[in-house]
Amino acid sequence: MKSAFQPERLWPRGHRELNLLVTPDLHRDDDLAIMLTRIRTLLKQHPATDRPVPDEWVHLTVQSINHGLAREPVGPAARTRLIEELAGLFASLPSFSLLLGSLLAYNTGVLADVHYDEPFNDLVNRARTIIATICGQDSIGHDSTPGHMALAYAHGEQETDTLQRQLRRIRPSHATLTVDSIVLAEVQQDPAQCVYRWNVLHRFPLAIPVRDNRTVNTR
């Protein structure tokens, strides 16, 4: 494992990027809150991951816009159009749940993988189409699938074998994430705290799932 914030990975001073994110409600998804608390206790015992991502910055990336491109930020007119078009899209898509886990130590940190992610992938693909139409095809060069939740960005070097064995013993090892809204955020790096921070520009609610309330006649 090595630092996630190597010099070549650092953004220019003051740089910000637009991102579509899923942010969890840990008061509702309490199994996820419990899992995160136990993971952080473990991560703080390892020198390269002892600054795990706190609750307020935990997220799933739907799509980064212009990630890594040296170009002007998305201007006001394009932002307005993005919000209008994405609002229409997300209002037509029903909310859903994802299963987070297994827990994986990888080359620059620790993450929770995503399962049963077909609705997430569909949402990503539809959003990418709108973003590419408004901001250009090169604006969606970063691919966030398969979905994942970063739990720690490493800030040093260490072997991953011991950490991965300990992560396998965390219980619960999987947790539910309810996805009922998407945020458009302006994101910036914070290498000192090993997180990405953001300001929410707009929150898009997803549609309430249609439930079939018909009763079955068993007679």
What does this structure look like?
This protein starts with 16 loop residues before the first strand and ends in a 14-residue tail after the last strand. The longest helix is centred in the middle third of the chain and has 18 residues, at 118-135. A hairpin with a 4-residue loop joins strand 7 and strand 8. It is of the alpha+beta class. The chain has a 4-stranded antiparallel sheet. Helices cover 25% and strands 28% of the residues.
Structure described in brief:
By secondary structure, the protein is of the alpha+beta class. It contains four helices and eight strands.
Structural class: alpha+beta
Please tell me the overall pLDDT.
93
Please count the beta strands (DSSP E, at least 2 residues each).
8
Q: Please tell me how large the radius of gyration is.
A: 19 Å
Provide the spatial order of strands within the biggest beta sheet: 2-1-7-8
Number of contiguous helices: 4
Query: What proportion of the residues form beta strands (DSSP E)?
Result: 25-35%
User: What string, H for helix and E for strand, traces the elements in order?
Assistant: EHEHEEHEHEEE
> Spans with pLDDT under 50 lasting ≥5 residues?
214-219
Q: Which range best describes the helical content: under 10%, 10-25%, 25-40%, 40-55%, 55-70% or over 70%?
A: 25-40%
- What profile does the largest beta sheet have? 4 strands, antiparallel
Distance between the termini: 63 Å
